[in-house]
Amino acid sequence: MNSESATESRWSRFWFTPVPTTGIHVVRVLSGLLFLFWLLSLVGHQEGFFSRTGWLDMTAFQELRRQQEFQPADWSILYIAGQNPAIFSAIYWTSIAVIVLFTLGIATRLTSIGTWVIVVSFLANPATSYDGDYLLGILAFHLMIGHVLMGAWSGNLNKLEWLLGSRHDFVFARLLFTKPDEPRLSYGANFMMRLFQIHFTIIVVTSGLHKLQIGDWWSGSALWYTLHPPFQVTLESLKRERATAPVVMFFVSLVQYAALAWQIGFPAFAWRSGVVWRSVLLGGAAIGWVGVLFLFKLPLFGPFFFIGSLCFLNADEWAWLKGRVLSMTQRSAEGKVAREPVKVGSKK
What we know:
The structure is a single chain. By secondary structure, the chain is mostly helical. The chain contains 18 helices and two strands. It has helices spanning about 1-15, 20-40, 45-50, 60-65, 85-105, 110-125, 135-150, 160-165, 175, 185-210, 215-220, 220-225, 235-240, 245-265, 265-270, 275-295, 300-310, 315-340, and strands spanning about 20, 185. A two-stranded antiparallel sheet has the order 1-2.
């Protein structure tokens, strides 16, 4: 009976312990910047990629959707525009504005829902379909859950904040509303983080196990093909590399097996605190970000994995990071004041 009570207590603490909102705010800002990068990188070609008058007509659009292994949503707010470029442009820039408001923490109870709707809507068109894009929908969905629930139990919100979200979600709220020593705790923030942790762990481990179904990952040669694109490699370039091939293959295999170990062993260290385990968690995510960007030219996978890894930091670790950032900011401000020249008035 005592064992069952202890298990129930641990389960309750895992899901239903109020935590400071620092973590969810940082994740929101980083995710919002990622969403904006994703959409703004296509400015100038947004109609070609996303509209019904773009590169795909309706016949091609429906045929590609049938061929996709993973079907995106059947709905999109972009469909409202039909074939009207002016309405499409208005929806596109309004979507950008909503994501900016969400990133800044303005009316988050509404803009979080709007951001999720926007991200899913822009994923619906197969013209820009890529596996990594769907990870953004997962991130937006969990952030929506967190911001809809945040403050519902212990936020002491007024009627307007119940509708729009807490004013303390604003990026610069600390300067306007919150005292430095005033903690803000939330059940919803913890629930969202825990939910995303479980989902993210499944994604990471499944990705690693999927690689084990490919012989090149077992042999340690999978990354060699990435380093040697078929349209760039020639017989002469291969002959030049022949002397160093054993050394190169050793390090390529080492990096590849380290990446597999990080992914498959992720649950063993993701929830562990301490400098060593956090170095493995965040260091592995950061190295993976750089590797995926430069080896595979994929801009979205790396940021998603790094943001997902940040979600495993506990309240004490977020407090430590917040203190370090505030301390650095204060020292920078003091140094700037100290460097300013003293103005000496002159008598006429």
